[in-house]
Design a protein that fits this description.
This protein is 29% helix and 13% strand. The chain is of the alpha+beta class. It has two domains: 129 residues, Phosphorylase Kinase, domain 1, CATH 3.30.200.20; 253 residues, Transferase(Phosphotransferase), domain 1 (Orthogonal Bundle). The protein has a six-stranded mixed β-sheet. A two-stranded antiparallel sheet has the order 7-10. The N terminus and C terminus are likely disordered. Bound molecules: adenosine monophosphate. Adenosine monophosphate (AMP) binds next to strand 2, strand 3 and strand 6. Belongs to the protein kinase superfamily. CMGC Ser/Thr protein kinase family. CDC2/CDKX subfamily.
Amino acid sequence: MAVSPLSSLSPSASDTAVKLTCAVNLQDNAHSPLITHSTGRELAEQLNDDVRHKYIKDKKLGEGTYAVVYLGHLRVDPSSLVAIKKIKVNAEYKDGLSMDAIREVKYLQELSHPNIIALHDVFSSKDQNLNLVLEYLPHGDLEMLIKDGNVHYGAADVKAWIGMLARGVWFCHENFILHRDIKPNNLLIAFDGEVKLADFGLARSFADPYLNMTHQVITRWYRPPELLYGARQYSGAVDIWSIGMVFAELLLRVPFVAGNSDLDQISKVCEAFGTPTEDNWPGVTRLPNYIPADKNHTVPIQGREFFLRQFPTAGPVGADLLMSMCMLDPRKRSTARQVLQHKWWFTEPKPTEKENLPRKSDGTQKMGNGLTRKGGEIDDYTFKYTARQLDFNAGE
Ligand code: AMP
């Protein structure tokens, strides 16, 4: 019997403390209690210097829209690797920091969970740039695995990855935080195979359900219909839709609904899952950007048979879970807790142990030491229940 993913939800109390010694915009913030007196400012600067000196920055690992990421290590222990994310100084935000950076620090310091990237420290460099010291995740991201034709994976692997993603999102939602940018590229892989939710630059708290929020979030292919229709009040259901899209993409190895504009995205969503109406989604016609459906072309809401036909590798129970994440009406979508309580986790195949999950690289090794299974190999059971979409090299 597979173990419910709920069983490993609790974070370890020992990693909860994040030392935040750098006040945002330290010099200009005259109202900060840290720096009202010159001695306070000196103390803050001293603390910041102490943190900065703990780390040595090495080679550049990658670059995102608002940051450059470097490999780094602890000065006292060169084998303790970290990722140092240096926030770019942007002309737009020259008097302070971008909201993305502020959000990333604010939410990551609140969240400590095995499936959420850990923020170890924050410091400002001599040039006044903010640096986030993050857990180093050396094995790329899920997008790399999906796209790499040399990486073969099966239903048990998909179950393990979706379980880890769902646990991370559950923890965010329990803490009233929406991620708002879940996609394969933001799911980084640790040395031991654990998948970690990263990039909290668009995250926000959703404690007040009546507060208006922007609908311009979540990368288009993973964006739920309520946001495409311009909803300003929404919930954790937006992240659940994104998990559903990641789930579908892992099974198909291509994005399931890939629009080339917001308008094209909503029309593809309706084509795939059904036409929203007041009957199947009460209130949809009152959403700000709702577009009335063409009366001559309405698609009925898709049921179980559709999901099973489209995603045979998920099996009937997996297809049922996927369907519950892809309900057009966000109120009907599963919550993260319901996802983790679904019977899929208790049906065969069991999720692959994280150490045995396929990994990127030259395709000759599995994660962990001393493992004999080669990259790309899948066991008989997995193979039997794996459709050809999962195997780019099947030649079919
Ligand atoms: P980001 O700005 O978060 O999108 O990061 C840009 C790139 O840096 C990513 O695509 C990764 O290649 C790399 N990267 C980011 N964070 C980490 C990390 N914690 N460990 C290893 N590489 C990372």
